[in-house]
Predict the 3D structure of the following.
Amino acid sequence: MIKKPFKDIELSRLGLGNMRFHTSDPAGLKIKYDEAHEVIDYAYNHGINYFDTAHVYNKGDSERCLGECISKYPRDSYYLATKFNINAEKDYKRMFNEQLERLKTDRIDFYLVHCLLENNIDEYLSCGLIDFLEDMRSQGKIRYIGFSSHASTQSLERFADSHPFDFCQIQLNYFDWFFGNSKSEYEALVKRNIPIMVMEPVRGGRLSSLTPDAEAILKEAHPEWSISSWALRFVKSLPGVQVILSGMNDLDQMRDNLETFSTDDNLSDEDMATLEKAVRLFKKQLTIPCTACRYCVDHCPMKINIPEYLKVLNDVKANGDMNLWKAKNVDSEGTPADCIGCGSCTVQCPQSLEIPKYMAELAEKLEKHGH
């Protein structure tokens, strides 16, 4: 396991995210401890020393599960990262003490102001949390203070400039680098000399499986590399990145990722060009090129707002089924399930899109997930 210096310590380049363990209940709150502990033990015994969790993960069970397992090892041999989310809890003092108990420790190595958003940045800046964290640091109960952000780049910059933070955690992957805000966020943090902890390097698993043509480009360049490893290698190659978190929930994932982090090699310029070519093809093949001309809507007998539903389906294809809820917000008399496959929309579509097929695909997904 390769490591990288961080202030006066060294951190494994790969960190274990403790948010995606298998659970035993329909609500996904009770972790299967035996399976999770096998993963945690394997990670620790193969050189991973950075373990990330939060009080909102599995409503505290993630911290309990991690604490129960990791506490059997010498305390100076690993580093704990956890977080406080003000949108889920207001009493940060009580929560901090509960977190120490759940993690079976007397200190948190990396403590994060969790999930910075436009709707909570002012509360975070005014509630006293940061002063409290500094007080805990002075007492030896916290070592480093940082924050994680899902806000705009502008809000991230505003928050980063409000306090001398030790690190920041952002969503960073090659898809969001080319098509989202990852690059601007990364550059803002590098400019401020703030080390970056990476979440979602494989975009919740979405970058583990691309379209066949996109995968073929990557496989031709490096047949021995897994598709997932391209995502990890991309992030690993960025000099401002400190630790790359992966929510590994089985040993096969763990072994593949450990192989990727066994050597300190970066993507070459040629590799970067190959990856960009693949991801641009992936996005083109992934999304439905609807221009929202609405010719289809004018001729739909079921009065389905086709362009808006196609927008939802594109979001689901790019970002996952968790975005299916957006279909509820579509202003439409008919729904995808009402499509009768008459083909009047396809006849009118300048892009010759197979609209009935897409309506059926979205309807099936909505039914499967209870939307």
